[in-house]
Amino acid sequence: MTLFPSVEELTRSFSGVFKIDGETITFADRKAFIEKALDSLVVQSVFNPVKTVKGTSRWIIKKAALQFNAVSSSIQSLYEAMGHGKESGYTVPAINIRGLTYDVSRAIFRAGRKNRSGAFIFEIAKSEIGYTGQTPAEYSVMVLAAAVKERYEDPVFIQGDHFQANAKKFEDNPQKEVSGLKLLIKEAIDAGFYNIDIDTSTLVDLDQPTVKEQQRKNFEAAAELSAYIRSLEPAGITISIGGEIGEVGGKNSTVEELEAFMDNYLDVLLNKYQVKTGISKISIQTGTTHGGVPLADGSIAKVKLDFDTLRILSKMAREKYHISGAVQHGASTLPDEAFDRFPETQTAEIHLATGFQNLMYDHRSFPASLKEEIYQYLREHLNNEKKPGETEEQFIYKTRKKGFGFFKKQMWELPVEVKNEIGKTLEEKFDFLFKKLKSVNNNDRVRKIVPAVHITPSLESEITRS
User: Fold this and answer.
1) Taking the model in full, what pTM does it have?
2) Structural domains of the chain in order of their starting residue, each with its CATH number
3) Fewer CB atoms inside 10 A, N or C side of the chain?
């Protein structure tokens, strides 16, 4: 892993590939950039301790992505088309990447190109940003670099997932908790996240006497954050915002809850904040939990997912509110035969995360010695997270996601052949899911519906964020 000590050394090393003049960069051609410079720039963007080198590397990648037609975009117009019955028949996969982000993103883009898919989302949750050690600025650059590497030339959708309010902190100091979410939202938008999922469903109070009062804190906070997002939108972009009415892992959502949230959310958004465009989708609870429920032996309990709820609420979301439909969370550990059902029920979007993490850790090529080193670290440093009565297998299953942050560099330095083998298996899984979700052969339509808005990155800003 070669890390350049200065921008001068970086640019001198690739003098025949690109030339920087102030805020302008000229590329020799894509082939030369990919083969001679890109992988090194990715390394600088993640690991270089010199802010000017890290920021300049990120700026170069973003400039290359724009020039080579991998444009960070909002999925808003596509979801508007779904909400008005002009686009349908598939469910959009939204994929959380916790580690090896550049390599995993490449596998996703390969599956996307193979299936001529233009509708899939790269996302990272608020919690994942923390325990995987990936800032929004780093994450977006990894995704865009992967798009360039795999010669992907359709809109690239990058999303902030579960930008979630903490119920206890909100109760103690609502203004402080909302202000913290606003800081994260701004950081994400500045990094090129033009899709943001607000999750204030944690504030729902089922002890209140009416559904409206149960949802009040949820819709009021969601409206405030939506208005804030609209105030930050770059010229030409309407950010796609997601809302949520039922916390994943809680009770299943109902028609009454959807109506109570949407009617009052839209009313507050318009009359208090003078904002007309609200959310483009609504996350609901149908019986799943994030990551699945690990049993004593480490296997995952079977889930009874309520597809009728998905169908009914998606239909109402489209027909009454003209948004894309319902969103399913916590789905990556479902059995393979379940995924056909999502397009059948016209589920707008499905969030997938832990299953890919499991595939990476349990892959035959993942070094057993590194895995044991990670597990031992978790035993020693996160033992306080082990619940009474929990088995060793359950504890490891629930906490190993945090190994991606603690061992980020070690995973990055895995032998190329190991990462290639893992990437190949991931690509096969993504290919399977794209087909099951019927998000195939739609890239031409997506390209026509979604405008390619070029937001020129600022070199100074990229260095400041590094």
Assistant:
1) 0.94
2) 7-68 (no CATH), 72-360+415-437 (3.20.20.70)
3) N
